[in-house]
Write a structure and sequence with these properties.
3 helices
Length: 121
């Protein structure tokens, strides 16, 4: 097998050129140039975790179930509100049924009047 150097020629043709920027602005960013961005990211994540844990602890302390039974006054107030709501809904249903009844009776009366007028002629 004879080496012709074709592989080296391909590598040489696709090799990157050297940097031409005198102020080195085209170089890859290092950790020193983006330290403030990483610092903001780390501080943000830390503050978020602290706030999340604080809210979790506060929720557990604030909303612990208590063993106190409901007072009779509270139960009576709740049941009376439910009764008032139930009664008002029943009154609305009754009013609607009366309106429907009146409408149906008027329609029936008109039909009967039309039948009577047909038989009169």
């Amino acid at each position: 097998m004879e080496e012709t150097g074709s592989l080296a020629a391909i590598f040489d043709s696709y090799a990157s050129l050297s940097q031409v920027c005198p102020n080195k602005s085209g170089e890859a960013l290092g950790f020193n140039s983006c330290f403030s961005a990483f610092l903001v990211l780390v501080v943000g994540i830390s503050v978020g975790l602290v706030l999340m844990s604080f809210e979790s602890i506060l929720a557990r302390l604030k909303f612990q179930p208590q063993n106190d039974p409901k007072t009779p006054e509270l139960e009576q107030a709740v049941s009376s509100r439910a009764q008032v709501s139930y009664i008002s809904k029943l009154q609305q249903i009754i009013w609607t049924l009366k309106q429907e009844n009146n409408t149906l009776s008027m329609k029936l009366k008109l039909r009967l009047d039309k039948k009577d007028s047909v038989f009169d002629h």
